[in-house]
Specification:
Layout lengths: L3 E15 L2 E9 L4 E3 L2 E3 L6 H13 L1 E18 L4 E17 L10 E6 L3 H4 L3 H15 L11
Parallel strand pairs: 1-6
Antiparallel strand pairs: 1-2, 1-4, 2-3, 2-7, 5-6
Length: 152
């Protein structure tokens, strides 16, 4: 039986207002074949919320502020590097744009795409992240996101 490694990560659904449009920052991987939400490992002493804000900034080049928790997803994958199965749990949070540019994304991702919020669910590659985005859209539909005149 293969060894199993447990990992905890956190990530963000980052809302970026551009004019009258509301966009979501997604990371591009594997030659653009994969669009995903930014996420990464929780560092020792770090809370998941802090990780979500930090990892989103690192991977997208855009700083966000925490709005609300969304959902925690779990999945398994095979790590060639560790030669083990990885049981991963990722806590996702809704974030609002504060500052920055996708041009400043880090080397861990190939690029950043700003996708209209209405297209975001269909553009994400992974089913668990599509569920997270649906949760974010439901929150937006409840009228929680300040659109105009808000301090970001």
């Amino acid at each position: 039986m293969a060894r199993v490694i447990n990992e905890r990560s956190a990530g963000g659904v980052l809302l970026v207002p551009v004019g009258t449009d509301l966009l979501v920052a997604m990371i591009s991987l594997r030659g653009g074949d994969v669009l995903a939400l930014p996420k990464g490992h929780i560092e020792p002493g770090e809370q998941p919320e802090q990780t979500a804000v930090r990892e989103t900034r690192e991977e997208t080049g855009i700083a966000g502020t925490l709005i609300t928790p969304l959902e925690e997803i779990s999945y398994m994958y095979w790590s060639r590097a560790s030669r083990a199965r990885v049981a991963k749990r990722v806590a996702f949070y809704l974030l609002a744009y504060r500052a920055g540019s996708p041009a400043r994304h880090d080397h861990e991702v190939e690029g950043v795409r700003l996708v209209p919020v209405g297209d975001a669910v269909d553009r994400l590659t992974y089913p668990g992240e599509r569920r997270v985005m649906e949760r974010g859209l439901a929150w937006l539909g409840s009228g929680g996101y300040p659109r105009r005149g808000a301090n970001h």
